[in-house]
Amino acid sequence: MSRSPSLPDRPRLDLDPDMSTAERLTAIRKHFFRLVEVNEELDGRLTEATSRRSELQNEVSKLKERNEALKTSALYIASVEELTDEGNVIIKQHGNNQEVLTEVSPQLYDQIENGDRVAINESFGIQLVLDDETDSRAQAMEVTESPDVSYEDIGGIDEQIREVREAVEDPLENPEQFEQVGIEPPAGVLLHGPPGTGKTMLAKAVANESNATFIKMTGSELVQKFIGEGARLVRDLFALAAEEEPAVVFIDEIDAIASRRTDSKTSGDAEVQRTMMQLLSEMDGFDDRGEIRIMAATNRYDMLDEAILRPGRFDRLIEVPKPGPEGRRKILEIHTRDINVDDEIDFEELAEDLDDYSGADIESLVTEAGMFAIRTDRTTVTREDIEHAREKLDRGETDNGVVRYQY
């Protein structure tokens, strides 16, 4: 324990009777200045002590509050399932899905509605009515900054870009046109095709080009551990989209929750199917979705359940295939825009040689060719670098040790 500093010595005034008047005056003046110094020092210590006392009082208050919180029993989260005419409430506790009939005070009974989230004690008595806030995981999926991808950065799928813009952007930016024609805009767009063909990039371009709120999630994020959590997350996502409309909801790898249903009785499969049923309900429920457009992408179109493919949920099923020779040439031009490439390289000829290459494969090829140029201290990529990179990628090798698979 640190010891407090000692107080300064009290100044004393000793006057010699033999002093002259001038000497006495000088001694009194020095004594006065010393008294002022001691007073200032003591005043500073008093200020420090007062501040320290305030800090200690705050710390004591926090410790008392923490002590009270530790002595207080924890509360559990539950959902209100039903209100009875007798003034009782049926609640379902989160986590174990246990349903309980409990009594509630008349004041709380008037505040509660079906579906509300409440805090209950160990005796299942309702203590608080919680705000119906959107799940923080749903809020985290909102894209606040637009991706740095435009339609000009995507090559080889011009027809698919046109169909996506017609189904997603046009209903949000020009809804009057659909009203004049007398048709409903497509409810949703499903992009399917091999990996690396630009499905996700197309969704990023929509997020960048449109003025709508963009909400991105993957199918695996909707698969939760506890019963009902996945369905609740889906519900909160669409509630967030309704609050931020116009909005675009993009579900990547949708086959993780929308695969074909089987007769499996395991709890995991049952929870995935419960999440999918909630998604189906949100996509074409009784309530009007308003200015909310839905996009999804998958590499496994053959695994999807028929219920999610029917009209009214995904009205446009757009296949995004591997690019042809002209598409590969455009992709090569896109990925070499900022690269010093030898003028003798013929992109049309090179595109013909890159048969069965996807857009992602071509991007990887250009990157590897640039690495070969760097190894030999050159600033220009030649056709020889591209051939070396092609041989390396065809063997399934990359510089970072990742194996490249051919699809």
Describe it.
The protein is an alpha/beta fold and 407 residues long. The chain folds into four domains: 12-72; 76-129, Nucleic acid-binding proteins (OB fold (Dihydrolipoamide Acetyltransferase, E2P), Beta Barrel); 137-319, P-loop containing nucleotide triphosphate hydrolases (Rossmann fold, 3-Layer(aba) Sandwich); 325-394, Helicase, Ruva Protein, domain 3, CATH 1.10.8. 43% of the residues lie in helices and 14% in strands. Residues 398-407 have low confidence and may be disordered.
List keywords for this structure.
407 residues, alpha/beta, single chain, Rossmann fold, six-stranded mixed β-sheet, OB fold (Dihydrolipoamide Acetyltransferase, E2P)
Chain-wise SSE layout:
Elements: H1 21-71, E1 76-83, E2 88-93, E3 99-103, H2 106-109, E4 117-120, E5 126-129, H3 136-140, E6 142-143, H4 158-173, H5 175-181, E7 188-192, H6 199-209, E8 213-218, H7 229-243, E9 247-252, H8 267-283, E10 292-298, H9 306-309, E11 316-319, H10 325-335, H11 347-353, H12 359-375, H13 383-394
Parallel strand pairs: 7-10, 7-11, 8-9, 9-10
Antiparallel strand pairs: 1-2, 1-4, 2-3, 4-5, 6-8
Would you tell me which CATH topology of the largest domain applies?
A: Rossmann fold
Q: Total number of helical segments?
A: 13
CATH architecture of the largest domain: 3-Layer(aba) Sandwich
Structure summary, number of beta strands: 11
The description of the largest β-sheet is: 6 strands, mixed
